[in-house]
Specification:
This protein is mainly α and 390 residues long. The chain contains 17 helices and five strands. It has a three-stranded antiparallel sheet with strand order 1-3-2, with no helix packed on it. A two-stranded antiparallel ribbon has the order 4-5.
């Protein structure tokens, strides 16, 4: 992502990965789901926005896919051999090796690979890549610029990540019976993405410089209440990792995560096994499901109580090397402290009314001054303006 690797290249690297997990990151794609059927469902939903689960047992009731399509896609993953190298580690040194010429598993219906909506691959064609890796055929087909699903799926996902909801909802359920709210827009974004060689930075730039992205939010819109027509910005809570990093940044503290280097940010954690009560409370997913619904983004009472009354948060606010302690110790004026706290937390200065309230509640005793500003910061952390994108 930092190097702006094209999304089609990233897709090919994931689908055709092999080697030791500790030496080749993309191999991790094959360690959440390992059965051919599971890999077929994951691959279709993640890269194509197609939910094939219903076709496992019967013809899809709302789509054109049948069991022939389902097991034909699963057959691309029946020639994998997973070997334990004996290395010590979280995954026991598991390794994806070169696909074998014979099937390692048996499927219920089909044994020969079949592209979705396409023909079944003949057995002699399996070695066309020179490696005998039929996954190359699948990856090449998925990442083609003219694939009717790949570019539309990516465009819809990126639009949803930036705008708060997709042109198609759920964002990983693209089908004829679930049309986009703006078909021409989705087609245009998909074509533009393919024309620019699946450049993710170009796609983000296109969306973020649009008028739709720059609209202001409305807390109680009179029309388009759910925002499906994008007449206003949707208000949504910050993701768990982003919210925790924001609290640490504003409070002036570093988080300590077990087994990670100092100053590791929540958004940089390698996997969800790193324990954090805050991240669990605010809906961090286990990352063991392809479905976007795995991340819980709706606010609840437990989250509110966590911000109001959590001892760890109180410790961050009152940290001896934190922002509040530093500002008070430096003798900074009340106006300057208020401005810095508001700018750090809300990216704006306090209004005249807010500043007046802060001054009105200020204690007379100098030794209570730090407690006063800790209360102000606590109030900012518990404000909807801090916890929500708007």
């Amino acid at each position: 992502l930092r190097e702006n690797k094209p999304l089609d290249q990233m897709t090919r690297e994931l689908l055709t990965s092999q080697g030791n997990l500790f030496a080749s990151g993309p191999v991790a794609y094959y360690f959440v789901d390992q059965k051919p059927e599971e890999l077929a469902e994951t691959t279709a939903q993640l890269f194509l926005g197609v939910r094939l689960q219903c076709a496992r047992c019967h013809h899809h009731p709302m789509e054109v896919w049948g069991q022939d399509d389902y097991y034909g896609l699963a057959a691309f993953f029946t020639r994998l051999e997973i070997r334990d190298t004996g290395d010590k580690g979280r995954f026991g040194g598991m390794q994806i090796v070169r696909p074998t010429a014979t099937e390692m598993r048996t499927l219920a219906v089909a044994s020969q690979p079949k592209l979705l909506g396409g023909e079944r691959l003949a057995e002699p064609g399996l070695a066309d890549s020179g490696l005998g890796d039929v996954r190359v055929k699948l990856a090449d087909w998925i990442a083609r610029p003219d694939n009717p699903y790949f570019a539309r799926n990516l465009a819809n996902r990126y639009w949803a990540y930036v705008m708060g909801r997709g042109l198609v909802e759920p964002i990983d359920d693209l089908r004829a019976t679930n049309p986009p709210t703006h078909p021409a827009l989705l087609d245009a974004l998909a074509k533009d993405l393919a024309d620019h060689r699946f450049d993710p930075h170009h796609l983000l730039r296109t969306i973020c410089t649009s008028r739709a992205y720059q609209l202001r939010s409305e807390l109680a819109p009179a029309s388009d209440r759910d925002g499906r027509f994008f007449t206003h910005r949707l208000v949504r809570r910050l993701p768990a990792e982003v919210l925790l990093d924001a609290i640490n940044q504003v409070a002036g503290c570093d988080e300590t995560f077990t087994g990670t280097p100092p100053k590791t940010r929540a958004i940089a954690l390698p996997d969800p096994t790193v324990i954090s009560d805050f991240l669990t409370t605010f809906g961090r997913p286990q990352r063991n499901s392809t479905c976007e619904c795995a991340r819980e983004s709706s606010p609840d009472l437990l989250q509110a109580l966590h911000l109001i009354n959590n001892a760890v948060l109180q410790t961050k606010i009152a940290h001896p090397q934190g922002r509040v302690a530093r500002l008070v110790a430096s003798g900074t004026s009340d106006e300057a402290i208020a401005a810095e706290l508001y700018l750090a937390a809300l990216a704006r200065e306090p209004t005249a009314a807010e500043l007046a309230t802060i001054k009105e509640l200020a204690p007379a005793a100098a030794n209570e001054r730090q407690q006063h500003w800790e209360d102000v910061l606590w109030s900012l952390f518990n404000s909807p303006e801090f916890a929500f994108q708007h």
